[in-house]
Each structure stands twice: as C-alpha cells, then as structure tokens.
Hints:
Blueprint (H helix, E strand, L loop, with lengths): L2 H9 L13 H5 L21 H6 L3 H10 L11 H8 L2 H9 L3 H12 L6 H9 L5 H16 L3 E2 L6 E2 L1 H7 L15 H4 L5 H10 L8 H13 L1 H9 L3 H10 L5 E3 L6 H8 L4 E4 L2 E3 L2 H7 L17 E4 L2 H25 L15 H11 L3 H13 L3 E3 L7 E3 L1 H7 L3 H14 L29 H14 L4 E3 L1 H11 L9 H16 L2 E2 L2 E2 L1 H10 L2 H10 L6 H14 L11 E3 L3 E4 L5 H10 L1 E4 L4 E4 L2 H9 L4 H11 L6 H13 L4 E3 L3 E4 L3 H9 L9 E4 L2 E4 L3 H10 L5 E2 L34 H19 L20 H14 L3 E6 L5 E12 L2 E6 L4 E6 L3 E6 L2
Parallel strand pairs: 16-20
Antiparallel strand pairs: 1-2, 3-5, 4-5, 6-9, 7-8, 10-11, 12-13, 13-15, 14-15, 16-17, 17-19, 18-19, 21-22, 21-25, 22-23, 23-24
Helix pairs in contact: 1-5, 4-35, 7-9, 7-10, 12-13, 15-16, 19-20, 22-28, 23-25, 24-25, 26-28, 30-32
Amino acid sequence: MGTGERNQEAHVSEGTTGATSGADSASRTTGSASRTTASAPRAAAPAPRTLAESLRARPDDSLAALLRARPDLLSPVPGDLTQLATRAGTRASVVRALERLDTFALQTAQALAVAPEPAPYEAVRALLAGDDGDAEVERALPGALAALREQALVWGGDDRLRLVRTARELLAPSPTHPSPTGLGPTVAEATAGMSPGRVQEILQTAGLPATHDPVSAVAALTSLFTDRERMAALLDTAPSDALTVLDRLVWGPPYGEVSADPPPPVRWLRDHGLLLPASARTVVLPREVALHLRAGRAHRTTAPVAPAVAPLREYRPQVVDAAAAGQAFTALTTVEDLLAEWNEGGPAVLRAGGLSVRDLKRTATALDVSEPIAAFWLELAYAAGLLASDGEADERYAPTPEYDEWLDLPPAERWARLAVAWLAATRTAGLVGEQDSKGRTLSALGPDLDRSAAPEVRHCVLALLDTLPEATSPEPQSLLARLRWERPARSGPDDLRSRLAGWALSEAELLGVTGRGALTTHGRALLAATSGAAERESGRESGRESGREGPAAAAGLAAGALAPHLPEPVDHVLLQADLTAVAPGPLRRPLAAMLGVLADIESKGGATVYRFTAQSVRRALDAGRTASDLQAFLTEHSRTPVPQPLSYLIDDVARRHGHLRVGAASAYVRCDDEAMLGEILADRRSQALRLRRLAPTVLATTAEPAALLDGLRSMGYAPAAESAEGDVLITRADARRTPRRTAPVPVPDGPPLPDRTLLDAAVRAIRAGDTAATVVRKDKPEAARADGSLPRTSSAETLATVQAAVMTGSAVWIGYVNAEGAASQRVIAPVRVEGGFVTGYDHTADEIRTYPLHRITGVSELA
C-alpha cells in the first residue's frame, strides 16, 4: 500500500463510533491466562471518522500505552496525531505489531480481516464463536479487542469496528496470499469479472428469480448463501460426491484445479454457484458458502485462553536451592578453568571470526564437557566481557582485564554477573555447528550468532516457571505450547522460539538459575530485578530503566539471594602421603590461585583432589617462588603435616631448577657444571636441538628459546629462562591479557522500550503539534492561505494583534522564521510585548518562549 493510501486512512472520513483503549497490555506481555474482560457493546459516543480522530479522542495515558506497546512509532516523535496515525498504518510497523499479538488476539484480527467492513461486534463474535456459541470466546473477546485497540490495529466503536487497512491487506485472503482462516473471497469478489449472463444462469439454477442488473444478482446469491435454512435446503439436493468435494475445500485452501470437462459433482457445484471460477483451470469456494459449512466459524479451532503450564514434579524448596547453588558454584569454577587455560594466550581467531572446530574440541576436552556445552561457557564468558580477542596481528583469544576484577568479587556476585549477562545476551550458543543461509558453519565466538528474540524468550521462560508453585518443575511440552500461544506469528518454519526456549531451559539449569528444573529463590530475584511489568514500571518512574545501574542493581539482588546457599570457602587443605592434597570445599581465592599453580587438579566434586608432580612444582618455581616459600605455604594451609615425600619432591626440583640457563642466541644454554653440559651433548635425545659448545659452560642452538626449554624439560632437566641481563625470567599465570574491551552489545529486537519521562514528553509534543495543526483560525485572505503557506501581515498589524491578545488573554496563530531560515507555524498565547519581542506560551512546543517580532511573518486570531 502506498503512502497516499495510508494517508487516506488517516484523513478520509469513514464514519465510526468512538474507540476506547483497553488496559490488558500488561497481562498480555507476561502471557497471563487471564484477560481484562469488558462489558458487552458500549454506548455510542461521538463517532471518529478516521484513525487519527480515534487517537485524538484517547486520553494521554492511552496514547502513552500505544507508544509503549509500539515504540517504533516514536522514532522520530510524530509531529501530530495525523502523523502518528499514518505511521501506525505503515507496513513495517503493522507487521511488528501483529508479531507481538497472542494467538486469540491474532485470531480476532484475522476474523476482522474477513468480516464486512465496518463490522459490528456481533459479527466478529459470530465468526469466532460460531452458530452454537462459545462461552470462553465470548468472555475473552472484549479483552482481545481492547488489546487491538490499544495498539491502534483496530479502531471504531463496537457497532462499527475497523481493522487498520494495512493489517487487513496482510491478513485478508487472496490467490497469492491465502488467509490463515482458510477462507476464500466473497461472492461479490469472486464474480467481479464474470459476465452478467453467467450470473443470471447461476441464479436460475439455484432457483432464484432473475434480476435486472449484476449487482442485485450478486446480492441475491449472497443472501441465499448466508441464509442458513435456504442454504441447508440447497445442500440437501446436492449429490453426495459434491459434498465430499466441499469437505476438502471448506477449511482451506479454498482453491482447486478443474479440467476442461469436470466430473458431474464439480459441475453441479459450479452450476449452482457453490464453486466459482477463479481462472481458466481454477475454482474457488466462496467465503459465504464456507462459513455456512463451518457453522459460522472463521477458524477450525480458537484459543481464547492461554494453555496452562503443567507441573511435572514438586520438590522441597531447600532441595531446589541447594542443587542450583551447587550448579552455580560449578559454573563459576568452569568459567575460571576455561580462562585459566587461556591465561597465557588462547587459540587463534579464524579469519572469518570465531573459534575453529579443532579448538572447540580441545576446549571441551579440557573442561570435560560436550562441545555444545563448551560453546555455551565460551559465549557466556564473552557476553560477560571476561573474554575477547587481543586485536594483535596474530590475533588470539585471551582473558580481559575485567576478568581479574571479576575474580576479586565474592562468589555470589561473580555468579550474578554471569546470570545477568546470560539473560540479556542475544548471542545464541545453541546455533554453534549449524549452517547459515550461505551454507557456512557457525562457529563459537564467531559472527551471525545473534538472535534478537533470545532475551525475550529467556524472560518468558523464567516468568512462566515463576507462575508454578514454588519448587515445581514444568512439563516441557506444555511450556513450549504456552510460548507458541503467546507469540504465534513469530513461529517460523524451524520454530526458532521453541528452540530458543529449549536452550533457555537447559542453560538455566547449567548456570544454576533453576534447580532440578524448578525456578530457585535467587532465580526469582534475578527475574524480578531484570524483567516483568513491576520492574519496568519502576524503571519508568525513576527514569533509570537503561544504563549500567539497572544491570548492577539486578546483579546485587540476585547475588544477595544466592549468597546464603553457597558453601563458605575454606582456607586449608589436607595433604596426603601419596603426593595429593584434598580441598574439603571451595578454597579461598588466594589459596586456590596458588594451589592451582603448585599442583594439578586430579578430580572435582564435593572435594577437589590436587596432585603434586615435578612439572607442577617447577611451574611454581617458574612463577618466582622458592623452595622455602612453598614449604611455608603448605605448612600454613595444611591441617595435616607436610608429608616427607612432598618435601623431598619440592627440594629436589628446586635444587635442579635454574641450574641450566637458556637465553637467545637464537638460543643458548649456560651452566657452571661442565659435566652436565657434556651429558646433554652426549644424550641422543638432544640431537633434534642441534646443540654445539661455544665455551666450556655454554651451549648454543638455532632453535627458539621456548623450543629449547621444552626440549630440555622433556629430557628430565629443569632449565630456567633468563633475560638479556642474565636474570631469571619469572612466568606468571596471568601474563597475557587483552586491552580493555566492552562486552558485546545485544542486538535489539526493535527500538528500546521508552521510559516514563520520554513517553510523557512525546505525548505532550504530539498533543501540542496536533493543537497547532487542527486549530480553527479566523482566516483572512492576507493572513492565511489555502495552500498552507505562512500567514502574511504587516508589522503594524502583527504588533496590534499580538498586543490585543495580551490584553484579552487569547491565543493567536503565527508564522515564524528562525535564525537558520526554517519556517514554521505556531500557536502561542502572548503574555508580554516589549523591546521588539513577544513572550508567550507556545502550545506547539509546550513551553514559554520569546520571539523577535521582526521574525514573525504574520499573525491570525483563532476562532
């Protein structure tokens, strides 16, 4: 539909009754099964003739509700209500609004699309409830119409309901775009190109008297098909095979192909007008005939009430919270283990972006999880800003400086940061490994993983879990059915929303938001702080709905709810004679960091087991610790005496550590023990290093220092790297960090929700602009022109008119040209004229302003 046609809907008179906006949007947003019920048809009010007039009759709260439900209408703020009505009828905006309707509201809009225009309330009720009636439909219909009115998809009173023209075009049936109702065109539409003689033949065959013109003939045929008794009598005379043909077409699609010589049942239906030609080889079942066969229903089934989420199993709340707290702690350790693996530089970034399949497998093996779960943890760390690429020439992934700050937080706050990032992220780890539209495999941390619907689906899933009794897990299929009911228009061919919901359930369990499938106490706190009508209203009232304060406050609430359920960190381990240490619980951060360098993790669970080896001890010595430091550390933090084998291991490795020195020659080895260097040269395993003696205490090679270090260590030696000054190089676990990076910004699903301040300002601006556009003026040939140009008056007339308005307290209409040369028309109420300036209340800008008189082109009094 062109702009001119849409403007026509905003301007052309189409007599209807007043529209009243409903208050059902909050319950629809949260997917509540309950609807705001309204009384049956309301008393008639002064009839608006256009959608713009219908919006003009709304109170400010109703306009604010429209702009909140359809924020795309605010960009930019419309100049007046006519512009708002025109924008509300554009195709892109209407499509977005239809996508956000629940199933029954969409079915109501579809019924209006096939109903006569304008449609009375009873006609819509009959299309949805059928001839036999439906109590649930009749209870839910007022609320559905209220929601459609609130979003400006329907306007007019209950006696003359009108669907916005663009929505009718999108939902009405056509040969190229079948209606979701399965109904075909009306008799009038199907016979539009038919010859008058053929129409008269159909009348005669149907037993109707001939008419003098095609219009009355079509009206007579329509009257027959909409008369239940006469239509039933006609069908009683039809061959049984003809009824079988009708049964195949009645619920759609209504079109069927016929041959040049159709069989007798089809010929009978065609002769009686029950099938009408749509083309040379196609016939169509008229809408009136289909509605008779359907007993008046536009849909085979209606869904006036949201399906309930069925409970699956009920637990004790303490069990759910404890299970989720354990999983939350596992989530923290998993993220720490992941980034610890990449502390000294992670895998390379692919040229197209993302992580290679091989590196993803290595990460999954290191974390001891499956590849899809490893992808989830990678994407979570990336969304939380803990992981990024370093941006160097040889681009690699590495932890960010924010990761170190995150490590310093208490466990509950660290978890809350992850949970808030997960809930708002549009990146979807479940898509990793699938192919995009061009056949390319989607990689973890790569592009094209954003799905703007993901945050909304996660919020909806948690909100539905919150409707169940405490500590109750849902039946998954019933939850998916509920989500499909809430947003049916967004279910694509692959039903992405259902897949997103399935991923949300599994990810919430992995993260510890849910425990055993049920929403936890801290999960409810997270939901209350980040979603829901109550939180959004609070954000609008305070004007702080967006920005960093919102996520920080949400993280604080969630952390406070989780903290009591997390185990207290311990400050000791139990050393054992088999060179292992048992941590009886989560360790305090400094202890865990040091022990992670000094020993290797052998197993995890309720208690973590660490294994001391020569390589792990050497790793601690490389980090700058001495043997005495390590002995003192173990003595301080062990509840058991330090076993003798462990003391011997530390002393033995320390005695040999640094005895050899490796530098760059490309690389060299120096040692005060000439015999040891001779031993290395004589060892056949050193041949690959191509060592040669430069001096009694120095060996040199063309290999890189890192390769030389690794080669000597594989031979059982404990060399230490040294700097150009001859000092031992200390290698720390946190040596590699990216520059400061911002976390990836979620891809919005349309414009952001406006806050209360913006809504109030927008409504005031639209009202003021509408007042200026619709004000009645005392038009004078020299003051106001029919072509809409600025009024023109002499300086004396302008000054006299403005001064008179000050004395009478009335408003005037002025033409004004600002310093940049931009011309505008304004309605002002002057309060003072002095020094060549007029000061007054500008209704267009809704504020007090001062204008130079010499920039006012003309002035006109208002009627």
